[in-house]
Amino acid sequence: MIRLSDFNVIDESARERGFIVTSYWRGTGSAVPFIIDADGEIVWWYQSGVDGIARARMSADGKNMWMIMADPMRGGPLERVTMDTLNGQAYSNTVGSHDLTAVSGETMAYLDYGESDCDSIFEIDSSGNTVEVFESADFVTARGCRNLTADIPKQADELERLVRDGAR
Length: 168
Hints:
Blueprint: E1 19-23, E2 33-37, E3 42-45, E4 53-58, E5 64-69, E6 76-82, E7 88-104, E8 107-112, E9 120-124, E10 130-134, H1 152-165
Antiparallel strand pairs: 1-2, 2-3, 4-5, 5-6, 6-7, 7-8, 8-9, 9-10
């Protein structure tokens, strides 16, 4: 594990301003998403209930941080917390794993493993309303097509296309 104190800015003129949202997948701190600013300082963190955060993403409106676990065999509920960390919620009706992305406003898209046919892409808002936006059974022909890592790149490409094109 790299301690944040080990980071040094080598070329100040080449440094991008902004921040990085990240988390650990395993080990100590695996339930903590955090934000590192351009100086390498931790400026935000949250102790979540997610055991092994595969991805933490801020909503497009910047008001919420969403987290998803890293368990391709069973998945788990998505979790969301407001950026002031005062209001958090786990979404027990979701079975996500390893990736999610901001769509618009507070809406996020994620891979849902809870269907009996295939893992599909859903959108979710902070109230927990979900809408299926991509049915992977239409594209994946593998037996049962559930949790096959060979199909994940195809799903990720389609998720990026849907977000880019604003498809609903």
